[in-house]
Each structure stands twice: as structure tokens, then as C-alpha cells.
Amino acid sequence: MKVAIYSDLHIEFGEFVPPEINVDLVILSLPILTKLLIEKV
């Protein structure tokens, strides 16, 4: 099984476009911050 792990995605600084890879599972780990979420705080 192939796994891709992404963490600390601070996309308030720019768009995150993951590379095209052949995996069976993608894990997104916190924090995943967006500009919209930060403006609400």
C-alpha cells in the first residue's frame, strides 16, 4: 500500500497543488489553515 502524508498545509500563503502520484491513501494532518479561517479568528 502506498501512502502520501501532507501536514502543516498553510495555504493562506498560496495554493497547494499536490503532485500527481500513484497512491492508495492520502492523509492530511492538521493544521490546515486557510486565509478564510484566519480572517475569522
What's the topology here?
Layout: E1 3-10, E2 25-33, H1 35-40
Parallel strand pairs: 1-2
Give a structural overview.
- There is one protein chain.
- The protein is mainly β.
- It has one domain.
- The protein contains 1 helix and 2 strands, in the order ββα.
- It has one helix at 35-40; strands at 3-10, 25-33.
- Strands 1-2 form a two-stranded parallel ribbon.
- The longest helix is centred in the C-terminal third of the chain and has 6 residues, at 35-40.
* Main beta-sheet annotation: 2 strands, parallel
Secondary-structure element series? EEH
Protein structure class: mainly beta
Q: In percent terms, what proportion of residues is strand?
A: 35-45%
Q: Report strand order across the widest sheet.
A: 1-2
The count of helical stretches stands at 1
Poorly predicted regions are none
- Distance between termini? 39 Å
Give the count of structural domains. 1
Provide the gyration radius in Å. 12 Å
Report helical residue fraction: 10-25%
Work out the number of β strands.
2
Q: Average pLDDT, to the nearest integer?
A: 77
**What's the overall geometry?**
elongated
